[in-house]
Amino acid sequence: MAELAVEQWGESGPRTVMVHGSLSSAAAAFSEQRVLADRFRIIAPYRRGYHPSPRTDRIDPDRDAAEIAELLGDGAHLLGTSMGGVVAMRAAAIAPEKVWSLTVIEPPALPNGAGRPAADRLSTALRRHWAEADSGDPESFVAGFLEVLNIDLQLPTPLPPPLLEAARNLTTERPWETGVPAEALAQAPFPKLVVTGGGTPGFEDVADALAEVMGAKRVLFDGSPHAVQRIGQRFNDELLAHLNATGALSA
User: Fold this and answer.
1) Nearest Cα to 89, choosing from 183, 223, 225?
2) Range list of H helices, the chain
């Protein structure tokens, strides 16, 4: 298995692995969490397909999960945002004995929200977008994807190389199929936190379903971006409070 490139912030404290989502990468996704390096040893990998990690022809959340599980070492806190949240939950299910705490931010685990109206609508809309959009035109593909998610973001034209790479990776994903083993995670003893920003109703449904099944703490930062961690201190304070309240900070 090829070794992933990683960002490493902090030299001491509990090991913490942070997994980025589809349209970002390690340094960009978690820039607001670097301030936590005074108390954590943060490992932020570049998932396969995101430079400078090895290239891939398609995104495979299970392969990603196996690679993230390897980064847990003898034990770590685990955090994932967007598709990185799906990867983090699958990694936690692979090696629950190595997870001290799990935090996920708007994971597109749409099968877990099946039967909830907004999640079902989002799943249908994403299937339609993948069927109808031109995957050979990454710029328009991403624009349509963001529209489906109700994310208002002005894309640069042309897309800079990192975003172009991420867009091409996105076309190989199948978010309506990326369920997670929530029932198995519910049996794991580590504390769980599920966070959303309120912008995409389908993700709210998914988060509610996951929190109910896993017995997770559920937090909404209403009006925040999809990548809620980018709001900085308010998110960081909630994360630290959660770890302190559960006793996981000193694990």
Assistant:
1) 183
2) 26-29, 61-71, 83-94, 117-132, 138-148, 161-170, 182-187, 201-214, 233-246
Cα distances (Å, whole numbers) of residue 79 to 85, 114, 124: 7, 24, 28
Check the CA dihedral 94-96-100-103 and report its sign: positive
Amino acid at 182: A
How far apart, in whole angstroms, are the C-alpha atoms of residue 166 and residue 52? Answer: 12
Mapped onto helix, strand or coil, the DSSP state of residue 40 is: coil
Chain CA centroid to CA 95, Å: 18
pLDDT, position 21? 97
The structure tokens listed for 59 are: 């995104």
Q: How far apart are CA 63 and CA 67, in angstroms?
A: 6
Dist CA 169 CA 126 (whole Å): 15
pLDDT of 246 reads 63
What residues pair up with 41 in beta bridges, in sequence order?
A: 15
Cα dist from 162 to 20, 23, 68, 248, whole Å: 13, 9, 21, 35
* Weakly modelled stretches of the chain, pLDDT under 70: 1-2, 245-251
